[in-house]
């Protein structure tokens, strides 16, 4: 009988199969030759002590045991060419996983995506980085794969529903992600690996009869007697359907404006906003691993930190070890930061959003915008930052200690943010209460993570697209919009997800509810 075993080992043992076998054989008081195979079920790092350990959950197969390897295959997708059609707006994780699920359930998804396919998108990303040109339909947030495509591809989520998370992870593996994501405590894929996976998902949808339209922006939703009838594209083409899964993400401001104009119920939603901090990765390694040099067996260290300042949470968000800060604006006239990293996380810098939770009352100066007040608050800060940094895709930047002391930095070194930075006192970018909280919070961070509070860290502003500033309310049971029949607000933009995995899970849930209502 195979035996389950929980152990802690040194990093060099965890990364060497032979050494691990020897270690396990000693623990179990058997000879190495009696151990046929080790399967790693879970892996995490324990960096609480000076000597860092790797926690492993293993399945030990002895000689004579039948080694059962976990075979990961795709579901049996049906041919849906002639099936009932469902419009899916947006090809982010929510839209793509909704479409896959629809195919699995025998329905035909028509996926409508304003941006280009994942390869075509690259040219537009180059244009933002090099020429400061932002295409409003194809950028770091818009295009096939959605906002998560050129990201760190972190795949952890606060969702407690392990079954739902595992299903998405297994689908990703079936589409080409490394099986390691099934065992790592903090799995990630990386920007270099995600595009192929996304392309394969799209090809599978098409192979089974689904349709995917790129460079097609939904400009109107047709509604009659409080029931959806279809959509209109920017070319004035009408596509009819009685079911629409609306998965347009947190940056589709035109969709929020459209719904508001059409008097379809939406609500302002609190989100979080702040800066993106960049430190040398070696510094973060030395703080997190309590060592001078990480060595070859440990990955670049992540960090996660939260403090309460003046009654508000200030916390790290979407931390990218060995990563790069990306220009994530979706319109000209604004700047926005976020972060990505390659699968090896081998860049010299570590970046993280450091954000403060906002409350609905913070949006009061924008009250005349009603449900769009939070979105206008967000937009105003992004536009101000654009203006202060010189009206290109350069962002305002300041050294960390200088920021806490309201001092304009005399110099800003080159950072990973390719379009460049302009030295600005960041207190000018944010409302006073936010600046105050961040100034105090960073000093507190330095007390918990010794070395973090340093002028070698560069703050970039703003980090503003942490989650949707709007919620599109839906019925808890049917997942349909509270007023509009056949409309399924879905994913991060509607306020029901906060990352790649939770968006994908929500996409599947909406597809299932759609299918149930069509029965
Ligand atoms: P989105 O991914 O935003 O997709 C929405 C899609 O709808 C887009 O493709 C858009 O083009 C399309 N669309 C919008 N309006 C229209 C319209 N009118 N007509 C047609 N199509 C439209 N999350 C993680 O979990 N891990 C990470 O490591 C991570 N890193 C990130 C790094 C970056 C740089 C960014 C920007 C985000 C990152 N995120 C990460 C967040 C993650 O990408 C999002 O939470 C996730 O993509 C949300 O999925 P979604 O499908 O709900 O929306």
TrEMBL record:
<dbReference type="Pfam" id="PF01134">
    <property type="entry name" value="GIDA"/>
</dbReference>
<dbReference type="InterPro" id="IPR002938">
    <property type="entry name" value="FAD-bd"/>
</dbReference>
<feature type="domain" description="MnmG N-terminal">
    <location>
        <begin position="200"/>
        <end position="250"/>
    </location>
</feature>
<feature type="domain" description="FAD-binding">
    <location>
        <begin position="84"/>
        <end position="117"/>
    </location>
</feature>
<dbReference type="InterPro" id="IPR040131">
    <property type="entry name" value="MnmG_N"/>
</dbReference>
<protein>
    <recommendedName>
        <fullName>FAD/NAD(P)-binding domain-containing protein</fullName>
    </recommendedName>
</protein>
<keyword id="KW-0274">FAD</keyword>
<dbReference type="Pfam" id="PF01494">
    <property type="entry name" value="FAD_binding_3"/>
</dbReference>
<feature type="domain" description="FAD-dependent protein C-terminal">
    <location>
        <begin position="270"/>
        <end position="466"/>
    </location>
</feature>
<dbReference type="InterPro" id="IPR049516">
    <property type="entry name" value="FAD-depend_C"/>
</dbReference>
<dbReference type="InterPro" id="IPR036188">
    <property type="entry name" value="FAD/NAD-bd_sf"/>
</dbReference>
<dbReference type="GO" id="GO:0071949">
    <property type="term" value="F:FAD binding"/>
</dbReference>
<dbReference type="Pfam" id="PF21688">
    <property type="entry name" value="FAD-depend_C"/>
</dbReference>
<dbReference type="InterPro" id="IPR028348">
    <property type="entry name" value="FAD-binding_protein"/>
</dbReference>
<keyword id="KW-0285">Flavoprotein</keyword>
